[in-house]
Amino acid sequence: MRPSVMRSAAQLLRRRNYSSASGQQARKVAILGAAGGIGQPLSLLMKLNPLVSSLSLYDIAATPGVAADVSHINSPALVKGFMADDQLAEALDGADLVIIPAGVPRKPGMTRDDLFNINAGIVKNLCTAIAKYCPNALVNMISNPVNSTVPIAAEVFKKAGTYDEKRLFGVTTLDVVRARTFYAGKANVDVNSKW
């Protein structure tokens, strides 16, 4: 057998299958920044996802209340809330997917530089913990500015020796939806039409 065929077969055996056709394999999702404006509805959506078996909700404050509310949703995923730095390791331990909406939102009068200076430190600390406690997890970055926080995450993972370009994603869906809505309003066109 050719080495390239053997290598391809070995890669397929190592690859994790995240499709719903993979059966009922347990999937742990950790949301870092779960008590915020994006984190709360995101936590609800993840609780409703049939592929999620365990949901770790982490934030610096108010996480137990969010976890209690989300746990009441009628789905099989187990929900646990974690708060403060000393519980971050437990929140991340064994996570298959980490979603990061953590950070401060941009406030009136705040420049993108101000936003970057605050959120860069938050992302750096969270990604350092991810590299240590769940280095093989898929990481979805929502923290703004995404075009800056994703490269920060990549550098942290490279330094830790855990970087994999196929496991780090910048999530800009909300920005796209907002842009379409603003444009449609200004152009006086239906937001759902194809422009």
From TrEMBL:
Single GO MF descriptor: L-malate dehydrogenase (NAD+) activity
Looking up SUPFAM superfamilies in the UniProt record yields:
NAD(P)-binding Rossmann-fold domains
Catalyzed chemical reaction(s): (S)-malate + NAD(+) = oxaloacetate + NADH + H(+)
Stated EC number for the protein is 1.1.1.37
Q: Which UniProt keywords apply?
A: NAD, Oxidoreductase, Tricarboxylic acid cycle
One GO BP annotation of this record: malate metabolic process
Q: Which residues does the UniProt record annotate as the domain Lactate/malate dehydrogenase N-terminal?
A: 28-170
The EC class name is oxidoreductase
Q: Which InterPro entries match?
A: Lactate/malate_DH_N (IPR001236), Malate_DH_AS (IPR001252), NAD(P)-bd_dom_sf (IPR036291)
Keyword Oxidoreductase among UniProt keywords? yes
Q: Write out the GO cellular component annotations.
A: mitochondrion
**Which domain of life does this protein belong to?**
Eukaryota
- Quote the subunit structure annotation: Homodimer.
In the record, the note on similarity to other proteins reads: Belongs to the LDH/MDH superfamily. MDH type 1 family.
Q: What is this protein called?
A: Malate dehydrogenase
Organism, by scientific name, is Aegilops tauschii subsp. strangulata
